[in-house]
Design brief:
The protein has 554 residues and is α/β, with parallel strands linked by helices. The chain contains 18 helices and 15 strands. The longest helix is centred in the middle third of the chain and has 67 residues.
């Protein structure tokens, strides 16, 4: 609820403070005194558009500050989401500088207009906004019916399941998009994996094959050279090994008595033996070397496979190809896992749809039960407000699948005149008719649902006498459950006030200009103000008597 509104340097208001309380607060005053200007200032702290033309003194900044008790509004999450300090007493301040710069603060923290507008929608319901924000809004119409049917818990459960369904749908769409992309990639990945799998690569294979290829490519020359070397070293007459053996035999006896010569002889003998071994190895290598064009072709084909795969994957070793194979195989396994996740989510989606269908049928039944009586109540109260032929019907249109609020689209259809066609409210009601319909619907749900502070600007325009009296009773009943502020020209409505504020103009003592002031009236002042509304200024004795009777009758 709003507790205080302070306005400084706005329009014809130099400085003004209004303290509000629970119940019904009435604001009266002469036409042009500035009542609507007060609402204009209030609208600024609710996120309205700022204009430097509204500055009282264009050399000073305009400051508008509202204090609200928000302990019952459950707004802690909203404050956290917007990085604002939460306090049960909320202070919203709006400043407009002479240069046209506008700044907004929530509990002394800078805030943008979007935040103010979101807060404003929760805190204040201005009558001028009601036709677009509430009574014509399908969501509000549903909320109204559900409040009257007392199925808030069921609605909360349905909406929670619907939100889960939407989350499942979003995740399912994401995975299905991944799957579609995977399908496009999968064939290529499978081809790559199969190609690497069929290659059956071994870590040291390339080095062995390249060695074998070299031997096979040079087999004839290897045989020729190794064979010649073997003959030269071992088989020919006076071969190298024979000559070395002869020298060794001659050195041995001499070396026996000479340590230094024995060392040299030992080294010589070691070389000779090594040369004999090398000769044998050359012979064996030559004999083991096959001249095989068929095997050479096989080796080169195998190497070509390896080289082609290395080029394709931009690597240089078989080990790197094996690592790529492992990675690609893992990605294919992930694609298989996607199928499982999608299947699981599809089952969850179907279960949620079934649950929503079941819950939605319960919501529909309760809404259809309450709707006819609600329509009759609206018609009865509108008849009391001089709209005897008004009709309101709740129209249900089934949805093809569960929606965010149930299984139906719900619309209020309205006709103000006898024999009139039932239409959407915005197409069927005039401004005055809309005002009365707004008041009636709000009064019917006042005790059943949470509504913000309700501010009505001349909702009683065009009505008087007994109709105004009935409208005053409705406003009084409404104020039992909500804070209600009414700007009115109706004495019958004004007589219902718990607090009565009077807006008036006065000349500023130190300047040649008019300013707006507001004061709260005591009982005697209220009698005089209402009597003036009933007759003239100054009021007649009969008007004063009538005013007292109106106040005492409340």
């Amino acid at each position: 609820m709003i507790k205080r509104l302070h306005i400084s340097n706005y329009a014809i208001i130099e400085e003004l403070t209004l303290d509000f309380a629970d119940g019904l607060s009435i604001i009266t005053g002469e036409t042009g005194a500035g009542k609507s200007i007060v609402l204009g200032a209030l609208n600024l702290i609710l996120g309205g558009r700022a204009d430097t033309k509204t500055l009282f003194d264009d050399s000073q900044k305009c400051v508008i500050e509202g204090r609200f008790d928000i302990a019952a509004y459950d707004l802690k999450a909203f404050f956290a989401e917007n990085d604002l300090d939460y306090d049960p007493e909320l202070i919203i301040r709006r400043e407009i500088t002479p240069s046209g710069k506008s700044r907004a603060f929530v509990n002394d923290t800078p805030a943008n207009l979007k935040v103010l507008q979101q807060l404003g929608a929760v805190l204040i319901d201005l009558h001028q906004q009601f036709d677009t924000l509430y009574i014509n809004n399908s969501d509000f119409q549903l909320e109204l019916l559900d409040a009257l049917a007392g199925q808030g818990v069921a609605v909360t459960a349905y909406r929670a399941d619907y939100q889960r369904l939407q989350a499942v749908r979003r995740k399912l769409n994401q995975l299905q998009e991944e799957q579609a992309q995977a399908r496009r990639e999968q064939e290529f990945l499978e081809f790559q994996v199969n190609e690497l799998e069929q290659a059956a690569l071994r870590p040291d294979e390339q080095e062995d094959l390249e060695g074998e290829q070299h031997r096979l490519s040079n087999a004839e020359e290897i045989k020729q050279i190794t064979s010649g070397a073997f003959r030269y070293l071992t088989e020919d007459d006076e071969s190298v090994t024979d000559r070395l053996l002869s020298i060794s035999n001659k050195l041995m006896p001499l070396a026996a008595g000479d340590p230094k010569l024995r060392e040299i002889t030992d080294r010589f003998e070691s070389i000779r033996l090594e040369l004999e071994e090398v000769s044998s190895d050359l012979e064996a290598f030559g004999e083991d070397t096959d001249i095989s064009p068929e095997r050479l072709e096989e080796v080169e084909e195998r190497l070509n496979v390896i080289y082609r795969l290395q080029t394709k994957h931009s690597v240089k070793t078989v080990a790197e190809l094996i690592a790529i194979y492992t990675d690609l195989s893992g990605r294919l396994d992930h694609f298989s896992d996607l199928d499982g996740q999608i299947n699981k989510l599809e089952k969850e989606r179907e279960k949620l749809l079934a649950d929503l269908q079941r819950q939605g049928l319960i919501l529909r039944k309760e809404r259809e039960r309450i709707a006819p009586n609600f329509g009759k109540q609206v018609q009865t109260q509108l008849s009391d407000l001089s709209m005897p032929n008004a009709q309101l019907k709740v129209d249900f249109t089934p949805l093809p699948q569960p929606g965010p609020h149930g299984l139906d689209e719900v619309r209020f259809l309205f006709s103000a005149n006898k024999g009139g066609k039932l239409q959407a409210i915005k197409d069927a009601a005039s401004g005055g008719e809309m005002s009365r319909l707004a008041l009636v619907t709000k009064s019917l749900v006042a005790s059943a649902m949470e509504l913000p502070t309700l501010i009505f600007d001349e909702i009683d325009a065009g009505v008087s006498g007994d109709v105004a009296q009935r409208m005053g009773r409705i406003l009084t009943d409404l104020s039992k459950h909500h804070q209600v502020v009414v700007i009115t020209h109706s004495p019958q409505v004004a007589s219902r006030a718990h607090r009565h504020y009077f807006v008036y103009k006065t000349d500023k003592s130190d300047a040649d200009r008019t300013i707006t002031r507001v004061r709260e009236l005591d009982r005697d002042e209220r009698v005089r103000a209402i009597a003036t509304m009933l007759s003239q200024n100054p009021p007649s004795e009969s008007a004063l008597k009538n005013a007292k009777e109106l106040i005492e009758a409340v």
